[in-house]
């Protein structure tokens, strides 16, 4: 036997039904099901929000071990002047970065505002090419995972143990999926809000751990 508990959240004007036991089901309204990327009428406010998310992302990357000396960067398209970008200063540890540390650059990586600090020009050139080719992409990240750095020192190929590693193989025959399967995969992948939904809990935890000092 399983039991059913009904909980009403007045603040969301929604009803959630949870069935416990071997069979588990959960029904939620769209308002409760996931965090959403906020929409702004004021582009200056959107810029402020983006920089806060950007600073938090660096702190989270540092916590995950993705900081590698002066290497690694995130670039974010400016919502006010959309052919300009924000990037982190060079040689500042991810775990120390704040909103006020971010540098505003043009498509050539030349500083036009923000913090008066140097940036990794060579690194930004790669991002600039992505942003120019894909105006729908607002952010690009370049980091080095601890396991990836360690493995690269050996100069050995990656064993084809899963689909992710198989993609890097030069000697493995690859099968091109059909249009129908590709369309289904795109539908299942969702939109940027799916990634944002994963980010929000990390952001909230970073707020608690740091006292929000990255917002300065």
Automatic annotation (TrEMBL):
Which GO-annotated molecular functions does the record name? actin filament binding
Specify the Class II aldolase/adducin N-terminal domain's residue ranges. Answer: 52-205
**Protein name as it appears in the record:** Meiotically up-regulated 14 protein
Q: What is the species of this protein?
A: Cercospora beticola
Which Pfam families is this protein grouped with? Aldolase_II
- Write down the SUPFAM superfamilies for this protein, in alphabetical order: AraD/HMP-PK domain-like
- Gene Ontology CC: cytoskeleton
Q: Which SMART domains match?
A: Aldolase_II
